[in-house]
Amino acid sequence: MILVVLPAHLRTLARVQGDVELDVPAPVTVRSVLDALEARYPMLRGTIRDHVTLQRRPFLRFFACEQDLSLDPTDVPLPDAVASGKEPFFIIGAIAGG
Amino acid sequence: MSTARVLVGTKKGAFILTADGKRQKWVVSGPHFAGWEIYHMKGSPADPNRIFVSQTSGWFGQIIQRSSDGGKTWEIPGGEKLPKPGEFPAGASNKFVYDASPETGKPLTTHQWYDGTQHPWEFKRVWHLEPSLTDPDSVYAGVEDAAIFRTTDGARSWHELAGLRGHGTGPNWTPGAGGMGLHTILLDPKNHNRMYIAISAAGAFRTDDGGKNWKPINKGLRSTHIPDPDAEIGHCVHRIALHPSRPDVLFMQKHWDVMRSDNAGDQWREVSGNLPTDFGFVIDVHAHEPETIYVVPIKSDGEHFPPEGKLRVYRSRTGGNDWEPLTKGLPQQDCYVDVLRDAMAVDTFDPCGVYFGTTGGQVYASADSGDSWTPIVRDLPAVLSVEVQTIP
Predict the structure, then answer these.
(1) For residue B60, what is the nearest residue in chain A, using CA coordinates?
(2) Which chain A residue lies closest to B86 (C-alpha atoms)?
(3) Which of B179, B220, B270, B384 is the most buried (most CB within 10 A)?
(4) Which residue of chain A comes nearest to B35, CA vs CA?
(5) Phi, psi of A52 (to 5 degrees)
């Protein structure tokens, strides 16, 4: 079971409260997690990555295990702690400070 | 009892205001879609309880939502949960993909950028939704970068009417300061094959065959800030309006100049007359008097607020040229708000109601054709759009 943490706006859109748990077949990658997320919550299609190119939207970042995975290839396996469900996969909207 | 329902899109959510036909006491519902920019929200003339919303965000892109109960509940068409894991919906309400197919004959990949170079077409957001006059499942969408899309399945899927971008002048279209948005869509109630659109800063266009073929309709427009002031395209049209009884007569608020056409846009003439400034964004037509029109003059180019700090609607009862200021109930000192292009609407009660929203978060209404005004809500986020439904 994979744990995914969504930004608040996307939780509202998907009508979920709290984190999302997903069954994702191995190998667990950014792409397979997003595929599973969009399959379960079709209203999120296009909000995290482009419909056609599947490129990450520029103001969103992917994090797990204190690592920024945003620029990694999407087919690289995620850390074991994410694949085993011990650590969540974070989708985070860019935040401006000041 | 009849109802007025005002649909307000703001920088941080949508609001719905309702009142009975007297239009004195208003109930505010919202924010709906809190935190999202609501560029436009409009009800279907064929089914007033069917409302479509353009919801957008720099982070999460475009969403289209739909209500079938007058705004009480909302759904994302095509985003329904599916019975089988891994099965994707056939369409997606927020999937706006430019038509680059060979079948169009003219797939377009670039338009002119601010610096004169060519730039790829990039979908950014839906500026305007125009529901069909007869079919509650059909809607037109005007988008940035400028193009027109249509859905015929209640917004589950969208398809570009590519003949607009492909008619020939598309590569020369240039964005205005606010982007290259297709912001105005007018459907001709007497001729279902005729439609008008306007783009900042390309100009106005018309189709006479249901959207297959388009032509620029900008003769008579003069824009001194572009290299050729009388060019076929390149004019920064801010808004066009028509009266349903007389759809060949068009009124336009251009970046500068208020214009009028009596032949479906084939030729325009200026009717700015005695306005204190002929810059502005909104323009609309009285519901029962086709020669009575409204504008809100704004000081420009740099300021974008009312002249002298006085918020004034100007009304012409002669189709332009002779204008009277309408000030009763509007702030006449220290007012520095703007009124954006989609932020004025009229109802069809008698007397006609007129509504407009400001970037200061007020929505003003007049239940007497503009003679007097009152704020029906204050202190909202900046208002991007105002529409009104007259429900029997």
Answers:
(1) A47
(2) A39
(3) B384
(4) A9
(5) -95, -50
- B80 shares contact with chain A (CB less than 8 Å): yes
Superfamily of domain B3-391: YVTN repeat-like/Quinoprotein amine dehydrogenase (2.130.10.10)
To the nearest whole angstrom, how far is the Cα of A68 from the nearest Cα of chain B?
18
Residue B328 token pair = 């009763």
Largest CA distance in chain B: 65
Rounded Cα–Cα distance for residues B84 and B86 (Å) = 6
* Structural domains present in chain A: 2-93 (3.10.20.30)
Domain ranges for chain B: 3-391
How far is Cα B380 from Cα B282, in angstroms, rounded to an integer? 19
Distance from CA of A45 to the nearest CA of B (A): 8
CB-hemisphere CA count at 13 Å for B356?
Answer: 26
Q: B237: which 2 tokens?
A: 């049209």
Q: Given an 8 Å threshold on Cβ–Cβ distance, is A59 in contact with B58?
A: yes
pLDDT per residue, tens digit, chain B (392 aa), is 799 999 999 999 999 999 999 999 999 999 999 999 999 999 999 999 999 999 999 999 999 999 999 999 999 887 665 545 444 444 578 899 999 887 765 667 789 998 889 999 999 999 999 999 999 999 999 999 999 999 999 999 999 999 999 888 999 999 988 899 999 999 999 999 999 999 999 999 999 999 999 999 999 999 988 888 889 999 999 999 999 999 999 999 999 999 999 999 999 999 999 999 999 999 999 999 999 999 999 998 889 999 999 999 999 999 999 999 999 999 999 999 999 999 999 999 999 999 999 999 999 999 999 999 999 999 999 999 999 999 98
| ipTM entry | 0.91
